[in-house]
């Protein structure tokens, strides 16, 4: 059924839907790559494509052929270049269709209300407080819903009950487990010395070290929260969903962790990959 006619163009409902869906998809891709190196590559590729169109329209045959070759292998090249972003995009789709997190699902099949998160926060926050005052560096990941097996496997398995004493001894100056990250799921310390993905977001201050980039990185690809304690400054920082809360107090840490871990319906940010520094 025709909606409107512009000259020889007969526009139908399905065309409008097509354009709207394409605009929505491009908008999502824009937010996904915004602030990353990928956005510049994408822009560069777009400019080459525009140049190709102009060359073709003007009739520059040699240039058109050359650029045509470049663009024909472009799809494959884009998949290789954007593999991180495509992975992140599919993860977001996977997460947003996660039934357990869906508001609709929660409304009808709400599990019995619990007032405390599965992970005991007091020993974690107390350990962070001690580490902060003693300038002991540390990186702790607290799981929410996502499976962190892949990252647990990069470290040394522990499977011990969460306790302040154990967290402090892992982070201690002479501990062989102090490098890398500690991963906590529910009330268990699952592993130490784990390697986390480093955030590639170029909006993060260049002075930010690898411990803090790793804290942001893990929260960009999973729904876990990550705490970094700086060895240099003793500051406590928290990363959630790619957002970075720098230099927070132990009370703020506990409050933010509590809110985040208890909020099962909290939707993931749309502009995944964009980190903000909340100093
Ligand atoms: N990808 C990673 N995964 C897990 N841990 C990491 C990773 N990168 C660095 N770390 C840990 O962070 C420690 C300190 O790294 P770096 O000095 O670059 O970080 P930083 O952010 O400047 O932290 P600090 O303020 O404590 O110096 C490393 O010794 C290592 O234990």
UniProtKB/TrEMBL annotation:
Family according to the record: Belongs to the adenylate cyclase family. DacA/CdaA subfamily.
Catalytic activity reported: 2 ATP = 3',3'-c-di-AMP + 2 diphosphate
Function in brief: Catalyzes the condensation of 2 ATP molecules into cyclic di-AMP (c-di-AMP), a second messenger used to regulate differing processes in different bacteria.
Entry keywords, A to Z: ATP-binding, Cell membrane, Membrane, Nucleotide-binding, Nucleotidyltransferase, Transferase, Transmembrane, Transmembrane helix
Alphabetical list of Gene3D superfamilies matching this protein: DNA integrity scanning protein, DisA, N-terminal domain (3.40.1700.10)
Molecular function GO terms recorded: diadenylate cyclase activity
Top-level EC class as recorded in UniProt: transferase
Domain DAC: 83-250
Entry superkingdom: Bacteria
Residues passing through the membrane, by range: 12-31, 37-55, 62-82
Pfam families with a match to the protein in the record: CdaA_N (PF19293), DAC (PF02457)
Subunit structure: Probably a homodimer.
EC assignment: 2.7.7.85
PANTHER family according to UniProt: DIADENYLATE CYCLASE
Gene: cdaA
Name the record gives this protein: Diadenylate cyclase
